[in-house]
Every structure is written in structure tokens, then in C-alpha cells.
């Protein structure tokens, strides 16, 4: 059974998700992991699907005039952990945190914050951003190696936030109850 990465981008309208997932189900493809969101009036979907269909066949089934679709065969390389998010194989499970940024919109916010996290081996496992008027909001799920000095990391994040005129918070994830 093969694994394929599917991306879909199109103008948001009722039924887009139903049409895409229905086409996948009709050809026996099983959605193993997915994320779907609205970006500026467009639906954006990323899915990992397994099944007997080759990527070219999946692409033919998903094509529609109002959608941009890509399908690529990939190698299964992750296990699925808490809340359905994939974690890289071979990495020890780290400590989960939620990072939030609130402040004025400007270029480089994600770059500055993610660079600080990456310097300590932090991995952003999920992220959402929104621009509301002039207020920019970023919320990210972050996994840190267990040996990271979290207090020192928080001081570096606060310094970046100050430079961006933004408030940055960083707190441990609440344990899942499932």
C-alpha cells in the first residue's frame, strides 16, 4: 500500500472538502493525516493518504477547474502521536509548548521567532496565523528537546518580541485527555 501527499488549494465554497474527500474515498484512498484551513478566502488542504492508487491516478480523480492539486508519492517516515500530528521518526519525543505572538503586522515575524526556536532544536509542529486589521496573531505548537533551558529560551523569545513590538507567550501544553 502506497503513501501519497496531496495538496489542494481553491476558492472556498461549500462542498470543496466533501468533493475532495469523496473522490479519495471512491478510489479506496484512506486519509491518514490531514490539515485543512481557510487562507484569505481560499481552502487549503494537505493530506497524507494511503491506498493502491498511483499519484497520477489520484491527481486525475481530484482535478477540478477551480482547484490546484498536487499529488506526490512519499515514504512513510513518521509515527502519529498526540492530537494526530506527525513526529519525526528517530527523534525522542520532546516537551510540548504553545507559543503565541500578538502585535503589529510586519515582515519577518515568523522568521525571527522560528529562528530562536530552531537554535535550541525546537520544532514547530503546527502553526496558525491571522491578520485582523493591523493586529497580527500567531499560534504555534512547539516541541522542544527535553534538555532545553526553557527559562533561557523564554528570555530570548521575549527579546525578539520586544524588537517586534509584540507580546510573546510560551506555555506548556495541557496533557491530552484521550
Could you give the topology of this structure?
Blueprint: E1 2-11, H1 16-26, E2 30-39, E3 42-51, H2 55-62, E4 67-74, E5 78-80, E6 86-88, E7 95-104, H3 109-119, E8 123-132, E9 135-144, H4 150-163, E10 167-172
Helix pairs in contact: 3-4
What does this structure look like?
By secondary structure, the chain is of the alpha+beta class. It has two domains: 2-75, 2-Layer Sandwich (Alpha-Beta Plaits); 93-172, Alpha-Beta Plaits (2-Layer Sandwich), CATH 3.30.70.260. It contains four helices and ten strands. The strands form three sheets. A four-stranded antiparallel sheet has the order 2-3-1-4, with helices on one face. It has a four-stranded antiparallel sheet with strand order 8-9-7-10, covered by helices on one side. It is globular. The relative contact order is 0.16.
CATH architecture of the largest domain: 2-Layer Sandwich
Number of domain units: 2
CATH topology annotation of the largest domain: Alpha-Beta Plaits
> How many β-strand runs?
10
Number of helices: 4
Termini separation comes to 29 Å
Rg estimate, integer Å: 19 Å
Q: Write out the strand line-up for the largest beta sheet, numbering strands in chain order.
A: 2-3-1-4
Class of the largest domain, according to the CATH hierarchy? Answer: Alpha Beta
**pLDDT under 50 segments (min length 5)?**
80-92
Broad shape: globular
Please state the average pLDDT score.
89
Strand composition percent: 35-45%
Helix content: 10-25%
**H and E order:** EHEEHEEEEHEEHE
Largest sheet: 4 strands, antiparallel
Structural class: alpha+beta
CATH superfamily of the largest domain: ACT domain
Amino acid at each position: 500500500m502506497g503513501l501519497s501527499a496531496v495538496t489542494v488549494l481553491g476558492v472556498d465554497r461549500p462542498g470543496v472538502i466533501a468533493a475532495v474527500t469523496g473522490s479519495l474515498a471512491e478510489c479506496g484512498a484512506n486519509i491518514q493525516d490531514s490539515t485543512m484551513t481557510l487562507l484569505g478566502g481560499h481552502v487549503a488542504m494537505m493530506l497524507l493518504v494511503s491506498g493502491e492508487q498511483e499519484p497520477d491516478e489520484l491527481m486525475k480523480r481530484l482535478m477540478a477547474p477551480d482547484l490546484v492539486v498536487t499529488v506526490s508519492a512519499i515514504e512513510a517516515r513518521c509515527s502519529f502521536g498526540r492530537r494526530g500530528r506527525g513526529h519525526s521518526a528517530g527523534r525522542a519525543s520532546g516537551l510540548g509548548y504553545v507559543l503565541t505572538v500578538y502585535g503589529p503586522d510586519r515582515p519577518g515575524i515568523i522568521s525571527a521567532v522560528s529562528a530562536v526556536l530552531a537554535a535550541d532544536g525546537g520544532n514547530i509542529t503546527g502553526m496558525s496565523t491571522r491578520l485582523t486589521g493591523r493586529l497580527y496573531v500567531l499560534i504555534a505548537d512547539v516541541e522542544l528537546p527535553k534538555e532545553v533551558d526553557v527559562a533561557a529560551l523564554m528570555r530570548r523569545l521575549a527579546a525578539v518580541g520586544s524588537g517586534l513590538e509584540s507580546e510573546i507567550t510560551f506555555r506548556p501544553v495541557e496533557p491530552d485527555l484521550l
